[in-house]
Amino acid sequence: MDEQLRAGEQVYLGIDPTAGKRPFHFAAVDADLKIVAQGKGDLDEVARQAVSLRASVVAVDAPQSPNKGLMMRPEFRQRYNLSRADKRWGQWKVCEYELRRRNIRLYNTPDNAEDAPGWIRHGFTLYGNLMALGFAFFVKDGPRAPRLMLEVHPHACFTVLLGRRPFLKGTLEGRLQRQLVLYLQGLDIPNPMHALEEITRHHLLSGELPLRGLFSHDELDALAAAFTAYLVGIKPAMTSQVGDVEEGLITLPSPHLEELYP
Question: Does residue 226 sit within a domain?
């Protein structure tokens, strides 16, 4: 916990549960978009961060609940002009379909928690732990609880901020692009263009790139989640949500969504 964090200061925490045995990544920002905590750990560690930082909003990069089959219901299929005669998109949650139909790629959540990948199951557990700590799900047009949690999808966050799908996150250009987007949104992080400017002909030929100040893609995902949590806490009108309250909403850091992202 940052020693400069003042008592009573609002903190916005982003958590990125990762696949396999890799640790969770987390990042927390204050009301000035300064990073007050950043790191990685297991499920218990990130839950402790929410407590020790007294986070007011927590954004998690994981589904909040299993698929409840809403996309198989006639009223939902009619809403999206989908045929009732087939089961296409029936294994997707409404929020996931809303992103996929806009050309934003993501996973689909199974209807049985036991069939979900480990990182999704960890997400379910994390939401349960947060709920036990007094957090309630954020619903933009609903009543506002004192402590809020929300589901985010960092790839979708970067897409709506850019107005197009970003470069692959594991590439150098993908990391530069994502960090630049967050930097331009006002996060107090290094300007990634400085890292790019330090790369010389010699660095390229020697295979040694000076990438000081450039975050990993996991760290950037956690920061995108934290930024979305910040908007929910400070500027909720600058967010939007897709999905259905019954099944789960994904929150995005933009008040307007395009019908298609190139």
Answer: yes
Chain-centre distance for alpha carbon 113: 20
Query: Which tens digits make up the pLDDT trace of 226-262?
Result: 999 999 999 999 999 999 999 999 999 999 999 999 9
Residues 6+ apart with CB under 8 A from 153: 61, 99, 104, 106, 250
CATH number, domain of 121, equals 3.30.420.140
**Residue 231 domain boundaries:** 11-65+111-252
Q: Is residue 222 part of a domain?
A: yes
For residue 177, give both structure tokens.
Answer: 């692009």
Contact status, residue 164 vs residue 216, Cβ threshold 8 Å: no
Q: Specify the range with the lowest mean pLDDT, choosing from 83-97, 155-169, 185-199, 220-234.
A: 185-199
Alpha-carbon separation of residue 180 from 9, 50, 80, 241 (angstroms): 27, 27, 35, 24
Assign residue 210 a region (left: φ > 0; alpha: ψ between -120 and 50; beta: otherwise). beta
Q: Report the domain count for the chain.
A: 1
Q: Indicate whether 200 belongs to any domain.
A: yes
Least confident of 7-21, 158-172, 228-242: 7-21
Provide the residue count of the chain: 262
| HSE toward the beta carbon, residue 4, CA cutoff 13 A | 6
Report if residue 151 sits inside a domain. Answer: yes
Query: Mean pLDDT for the chain?
Result: 92
